[in-house]
């Protein structure tokens, strides 16, 4: 029995199929809960798969190799984000000035707050550089952190935690601020602070919010890559 399980666990097809099934199950649970922020699939599916990897003793390298086809889909999926954004282009043109100001202030605040808290707690330069780009999407945050002398592994963890936490607290926080009914405000806020995870949730709830979340995520990634070296130069 053990030998059969080990052979199954080592199969790339097994982990690919299991990942899809786990995500489908957690997505169904998320929808049945009324889109409860604590049950976002990116969190629950990761916890389930992590438990399965630990229980089976499967190295992450084997899992990553088995799910490589899903990784290859990230590029096309990212390009397709331009479709909902294209439909909102007239609205983007109408509000580009306040949108630009919000993105600039939000991006700078995300960097300064992370670095400031880490510095106040005695964090090393590696820690500061790793946490600075935490609100950018992972493909941007990791090389930015590495270029500034940070650890890509720590940057990846910081990005994941930021996205999950931002998505979970966004709904009650925006409701408290009275801004939860405006899809543009909600989308920009989630895309700016919770990057791809927040954007994915908004795309499920409202196409307008999802489009602006995609825009905010992309522009914040560009701003983060420009602002991190400038702001860290003052330390």
Automatic annotation (TrEMBL):
One of its GO terms (cellular component) is membrane. It is a multi-pass membrane protein. It is found in: Membrane. Keywords: Hydrolase, Membrane, Transmembrane, Transmembrane helix. Its main location: membrane. The chain crosses the membrane at residues 12-30, 37-57, 69-87, 99-121, 148-169, 208-234. Signal peptide: none annotated. GO terms for molecular function: hydrolase activity. This is Putative murein hydrolase (TIGR00659 family).
């Amino acid at each position: 029995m053990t030998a059969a399980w080990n052979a199954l666990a080592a199969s790339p097809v097994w982990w690919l199929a299991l990942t899809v099934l786990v995500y489908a199950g957690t997505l169904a649970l998320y929808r049945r809960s009324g889109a409860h922020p604590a049950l976002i699939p990116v969190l629950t599916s990761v916890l389930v798969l992590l438990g399965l990897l630990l229980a089976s003793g499967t190295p992450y390298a084997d899992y990553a190799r088995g799910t490589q086809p899903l990784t290859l889909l990230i590029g096309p999926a990212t390009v397709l984000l331009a479709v909902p954004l294209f439909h909102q282009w007239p609205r983007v043109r109408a509000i580009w000035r306040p949108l630009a100001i919000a993105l600039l202030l939000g991006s700078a605040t995300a960097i300064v707050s992370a670095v400031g808290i880490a510095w106040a707690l005695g964090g090393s330069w590696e820690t500061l550089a790793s946490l600075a780009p935490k609100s950018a999407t992972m493909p941007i945050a990791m090389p930015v952190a590495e270029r500034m002398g940070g650890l890509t592994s720590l940057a990846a963890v910081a990005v994941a935690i930021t996205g999950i936490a931002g998505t979970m607290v966004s709904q009650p926080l925006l409701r408290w601020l009275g801004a939860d009914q405006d899809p543009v405000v909600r989308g920009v806020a989630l895309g700016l602070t919770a990057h791809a995870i927040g954007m994915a949730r908004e795309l499920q709830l409202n196409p307008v919010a999802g489009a602006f979340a995609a825009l905010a995520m992309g522009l914040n990634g560009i701003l983060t890559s420009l602002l991190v070296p400038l702001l860290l130069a003052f330390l």
